[in-house]
Amino acid sequence: MSDITVRVRNVSKRFGDFYAVRNVNFEVQRGECFGLLGPNGAGKSTTIKMMTTLLPIDEGDIEIAGYHYAKNPTRIRESIGYVPQMLSVDGTLTGYENLLLFAKLFGLQKKERERRIEEILQLIDLEEAADQPVKSYSGGMIRRLEIGQAILHRPQVLFLDEPTVGLDPVARRGVWEHIEKLQHEHNMTIILTTHYMDEAESLCSRIAMMNKGQIAALGTIEELREQMGKPDATMDDIFAYFAGHFDNQEGGMKNVARSRRTAKRLG
Ligand SMILES: Nc1ncnc2c1ncn2[C@@H]1O[C@H](COP(=O)(O)OP(=O)(O)OP(=O)(O)O)[C@@H](O)[C@H]1O
Ligand SMILES: [Mg+2]
Fold it and tell me: How many whole angstroms from 185 Cα to the centroid of ligand 2?
């Protein structure tokens, strides 16, 4: 069996005449944490919304856990979990009640529901706070609860759209630890977007740098440095370099070609 869990092939999304995502291609291995990076409006969330079947695709094909978007969108939905960029919990309910709501939505039977909720509360370290209303939770606790909700049905692939936005550094690390646990102990495939370069560096084995709906570069951080011709580049350097790629379509590409030739000359 192939170890590739996600295949995105020549995928495009148009809003009117505007291409939000254009001809995007990538594959993600089982158990990998894959990062989608890029400036605001690059098309990261749109790409994730297509992979989660929330948005129809205009061109191309998406395959997740062996199922094709066009033929089996329901199977894809059963195989994935999704934590959106926006808030996805009800603040007036307790943590337990939020999980229960999702467990019912996923169609889990009563006994199984209770068992899974206990498991998840333990996994996301919210056992003690389970009976408190979510509006009393910290940002980090809310994000962990949202991750818990998204994995109640044990999906193969988890999508996280900016999982730590607005969190303080300690809460961010707490969320990272839980993401790593899901990846390493539960062999979950994770696809995330982030504007935090340290987050991408710490969690992602490979990164796609998106800009203006296209993939400007894809690879491990080492490979991206090689593509830049700058072995000591920081993640911020990598971001700035590739985020500028398509700025002035032709000029941008020409400039990159020129700078690569220069880099080669300089050895
Ligand atoms: N429903 C929509 N209708 C029209 N345009 C849209 C729609 N959704 C997204 N767009 C446009 O598509 C482009 C890509 O948006 P998207 O939300 O995917 O960007 P993003 O990379 O997630 O940005 P951010 O980092 O700000 O979250 C933007 O120009 C956005 O305005
Ligand atoms: Mg977004």
Answer: 28
Nearest C-alpha to atom 3 of ligand 1 is from which residue? 15
CA 12 → CA 49, 114, 197, 211, 255, distances in Å? 12, 41, 26, 14, 26
Select 4-88+157-265's CATH number: 3.40.50.300, 3.40.50.720, 3.90.550.10, 3.30.2350.10.
3.40.50.300
Tens digits of pLDDT across the chain (267 residues): 459 999 999 999 999 999 999 999 999 999 999 999 999 999 999 999 999 999 999 999 999 999 999 999 999 999 999 999 888 999 999 999 999 999 999 999 999 999 999 999 999 999 999 999 999 999 999 999 999 999 999 999 999 999 999 888 998 999 999 999 999 999 999 999 999 999 999 999 999 999 999 999 999 999 999 999 999 999 999 999 998 765 544 444 444 454 444 444 443
CA of 18 to the centre of ligand 1 (A): 11
Which candidate, 33, 68, 62, places its Cα nearest to that of 46? 62
**Minimum-distance ligand to the CA of 210?**
1
